[in-house]
Design a protein that fits this description.
The chain is α+β, with helices and mostly antiparallel strands. It contains five helices and seven strands. Helix 3 links the parallel strand 4 and strand 5 (97-103). The longest helix has 15 residues, at 78-92. It has a seven-stranded mixed β-sheet, with helices on both faces. The chain has a single domain (2-148), classed as Gcn5-related N-acetyltransferase (GNAT) (Aminopeptidase).
């Protein structure tokens, strides 16, 4: 599996994967955002995307905006590989933490995030208004020196 930058010609494949995952991705918009990190996983060089991740750089944080894997390719490590790539990017570029949000009922995603060291920072009650479901904000601290610093998750919960 190869992680590559998302390209304009990936639009249809990424939108199809997103639709199968119950979400939408505006590939053209993400490719045009200077702060976006739109990546895909391919089975082979030049192959069609089988998974995607859209991350955003926001000050000293990385935000996972969307991630999805084609159902035919799930449970093979594609989402993990994309997240590990984002984490490595964050560490290499001096980002403080990675932030994401996930529905409380999405056990497989929560398990994946937890296995990578993400922890629940707060519960957003009824975040998904269409389903009346809570969202969980999860964080992964990349720079332990920031724990307890002004504005850090630990200080905010104290």
């Amino acid at each position: 599996m190869l992680v590559t930058a998302m390209e304009p010609e990936d639009r249809e494949a990424v939108q199809a994967i997103a639709h199968l995952c119950g979400t939408e991705v505006d590939v053209a918009a993400e490719l045009g955002r200077g702060w976006a990190l739109p990546w895909v996983i391919r089975d082979a060089e030049g192959g069609a995307p089988i998974a995607f991740l859209v991350g955003w750089r926001a000050a000293d944080e990385l935000h996972v905006i969307d991630i999805g894997t084609h159902p035919d390719h799930r449970r093979r490590g594609a989402a993990r590989k994309l997240l590990l790539e984002l984490i490595a990017y964050g560490k290499a570029h001096g980002f403080r933490l990675v932030v994401l949000e996930v529905s409380a009922s999405n056990g497989p995603a929560r398990s994946l995030y937890g296995s990578l060291g993400f922890g629940v920072a707060r519960i957003r009650e009824n975040y998904y208004s269409d389903a009346g479901e809570d969202g969980l904000e999860m964080l992964l601290v990349l720079d332990p020196e920031t724990i307890g610093a002004p504005g850090s998750p630990q200080e905010a919960s104290s």
